[in-house]
Amino acid sequence: MGLLLASRLVERTFIIVKPDAVERGLTGQILARLEAKGLSLVAAELKTIDRATAETHYGEHAEKPFFGDLVDFITRSPALLAVVEGPKETYKVVRTLMGATNPIDAAPGTIRGDFAIEMTENLIHGSDSPESATREIALFFPGLA
Questions:
Q1: How many structural domains compose the chain?
Q2: Which among 44, 84, 103, 126 has the fewest CB atoms less than 10 Å away?
Q3: Contact 90, 84 (CB under 8 A)
């Protein structure tokens, strides 16, 4: 019985289908891959991220030389912000589907491996831990936190 309950545990994670993916019309294909894997979309909003929110989101990179370019990129046009739900360690499932951060290193069959070429335009962001997911969901979807 404990095993059955454990398999039903639900975890939420956060994704951004970045401006480059939205601009290229890849949003539906990206969401389809997540849903085909068995994950559920809990919340989604298409919007242009404001600069202050982007700077908060990428705060860990504030002192790095690429920070300004990163904020400029994520705020340049609409992105799809979404909360995805699945079993325990859903964030790992999403990150595996995404592929390596650098698309050159991303395996074929992953989102980045199939659709991206440049590190600076790598289509999708996914929380890297349950703690990051909690923080990012609270930032972008405070009603779900």
A1: 1
A2: 44
A3: yes
Burial of residue 128 (CB within 10 Å: 0-12, 13-18, 19+) is: middle
Digit-coded pLDDT (tens) for 94-136: 999 999 999 999 999 999 999 999 999 999 999 999 999 999 9
Q: Is position 61 annotated as part of the catalytic site?
A: no
CATH code for position 132: 3.30.70.141
- Per-residue pLDDT, averaged over 37-45, amounts to 97
98 in a structural domain: yes
Residue 64: strand, helix, or coil: coil
Those residues with Cβ within 8 angstroms of residue 126's Cβ, 6 or more apart along the chain or in another chain:
13, 14, 15, 91, 94, 95, 98
- Whether 59 is covered by a domain: the verdict is no
Of the residues 33, 90, 125, 141, only one is catalytic, namely: 125
